[in-house]
């Protein structure tokens, strides 16, 4: 536990920044697919390609984002990234009023936003440890669950606003995104300075980013716990994230005849469930068998998708998305806590960027494949493909890794099952 004096204001400003940043992300979660699927009426393949390209920068640049964050004074660096992110929606507004809101422009906009996110996320996650030390006495698991809860509850607020797209149009929502990102930048500047964890030194003495990235990957690969968690999250990303981003908008349009409100509400149910379970975890004693909690939570996604296959009424689909979100909050917060605790200060941003790559890196692959599977089988039959694959993945992870046995605070797997 940290012996530094605690200052709760740092925690409040940090959570304020997280909330403002992910409010914008919530709006984007509705606005982008609504424009692609409903306004431009693109096919399933083109929706999948658009979502794949939107997530690809996270896969390509995420590791560089972690290596860069370890070299930077995090507070000012994160503020600048959020200001840059605030400018991009304003550019899109100008293009919108100029009549240039076409498929290619939307994809380019999403790529730029994702590229900035690839550098923002490891910087923000690394900064969380500094805040936990000064505000919570070093209680990393509590800080992580609080941040996860704030992230997804603010996304729900953004989703609610995004659901108004049909009524108010795209431009006001883009302006709201820009404003919230500027608020995130302002709250970040209220935090104390966070010096770089990698010594600056002379340019010729500094390790290259490639060597730093390789070092971060090596740390993860040599730690059996980290390797198990990240492999599980990567393959779950292929099966779940891409499917969620491509399947649900098409399901709403083609099966249930819905629009922006229905797209927003199904996301509200899912992300709201994540936020509720994450916040509930902050009120409960820390989970001891973290690996077991992650693996059991992963089962729920497959079960939910099997139910969707039977074409339930729309309210039941919303309820299934909520249940899926509740369990996802457990798997996401516990996997992130394992990584936060295992990573050292000098390598934390790089290790977290590998974790982020594991979580989001499978998304582009899943989105690309999901579009073609949905086009071939239809949305209702397509849901059976990832659910079946998850059963196989779960068994492989259970028998070939130690994830089931990982316990909190032990630094290793439990000796008993």
* Overall spatial form: globular
Q: What's the total number of strands?
A: 0
Structural class label: mainly alpha
Number of helices: 16
CATH topology heading = Growth Hormone, Chain: A
Mean pLDDT: 80
Radius of gyration: 20 Å
Please tell me the total number of domains.
1
CATH architectural designation: Up-down Bundle
The CATH homologous superfamily is called MFS general substrate transporter like domains
Instruction: Kindly estimate the percentage of residues that lie in beta strands according to DSSP.
Output: under 5%
How many strands, what sense, and barrel or not for the largest sheet?
A: none
Helix fraction, binned, reads over 70%
- The CATH class assignment is Mainly Alpha
Distance between the termini: 28 Å
Order of helices and strands: HHHHHHHHHHHHHHHH
Question: Which features characterize this protein?
Answer:
79% helix, 0% strand, disordered C terminus
Overall description:
There is one protein chain. The chain is mostly helical and 417 residues long. It has a single domain, classed as MFS general substrate transporter like domains (Growth Hormone, Chain: A, Up-down Bundle). 79% of the residues lie in helices and 0% in strands. It has 16 helices and no strands. Helix 1 packs across helix 9 and helix 9 packs parallel to helix 13. The protein is globular, with a radius of gyration of 20 Å. The chain starts with 7 loop residues before the first helix and ends in a 17-residue tail after the last helix. The relative contact order is 0.17. The N terminus and C terminus are likely disordered.
């Amino acid at each position: 536990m940290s012996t530094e004096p605690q200052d709760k204001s740092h925690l409040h400003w940090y959570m304020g920044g997280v909330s403002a940043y992910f409010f914008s992300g919530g709006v984007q979660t509705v606005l982008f697919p609504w424009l692609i699927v409903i306004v431009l009426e693109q096919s399933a393949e083109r929706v999948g390609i658009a979502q794949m390209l939107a997530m690809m920068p996270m896969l390509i640049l995420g590791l560089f984002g972690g290596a860069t964050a370890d070299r930077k004074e995090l507070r000012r660096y994160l503020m600048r990234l959020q200001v840059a992110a605030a400018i991009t929606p304003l550019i899109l507004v100008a293009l919108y009023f100029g009549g240039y809101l076409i498929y290619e422009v939307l994809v380019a906009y999403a790529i730029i936003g994702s590229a900035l996110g690839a550098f923002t996320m490891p910087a923000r996650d690394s900064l969380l440890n500094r805040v936990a030390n000064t505000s919570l006495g070093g209680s990393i698991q509590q800080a992580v669950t609080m941040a996860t809860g704030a992230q997804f509850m603010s996304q729900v607020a953004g989703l609610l606003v995004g659901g108004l797209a049909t009524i108010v149009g795209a431009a006001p929502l883009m302006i709201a995104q820009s404003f919230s990102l500027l608020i995130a930048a302002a709250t970040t500047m209220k935090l104390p300075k966070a010096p770089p964890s990698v010594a600056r030194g002379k340019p010729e003495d500094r390790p290259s980013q490639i060597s730093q990235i390789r070092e971060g990957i090596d740390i993860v690969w040599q730690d059996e716990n980290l390797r198990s968690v990240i492999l599980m999250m990567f393959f779950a990303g292929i099966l779940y994230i891409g499917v969620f981003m491509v399947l649900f908008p098409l399901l709403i349009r083609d099966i249930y005849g819905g629009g922006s409100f229905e797209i927003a509400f199904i996301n509200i149910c899912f992300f709201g469930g994540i936020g509720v379970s994450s916040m509930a975890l902050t009120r409960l004693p820390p989970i001891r068998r973290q690996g077991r909690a992650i693996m059991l939570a992963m089962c729920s996604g497959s079960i939910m998708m099997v139910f969707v296959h039977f074409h339930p009424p729309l309210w039941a689909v919303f309820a299934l998305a909520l249940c899926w979100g509740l369990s996802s909050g457990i798997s996401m917060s516990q996997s992130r806590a394992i990584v936060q605790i295992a990573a050292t200060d000098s390598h934390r941003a790089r290790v977290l960027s590998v974790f982020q790559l594991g979580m989001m890196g499978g998304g582009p692959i899943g989105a690309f494949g999901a579009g073609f599977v949905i086009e071939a089988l239809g949305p209702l039959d397509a849901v059976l493909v990832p659910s079946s694959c998850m059963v196989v993945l779960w068994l492989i992870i259970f028998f070939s890794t130690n994830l089931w046995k990982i316990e909190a605070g032990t630094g290793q797997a439990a000796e008993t099952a």
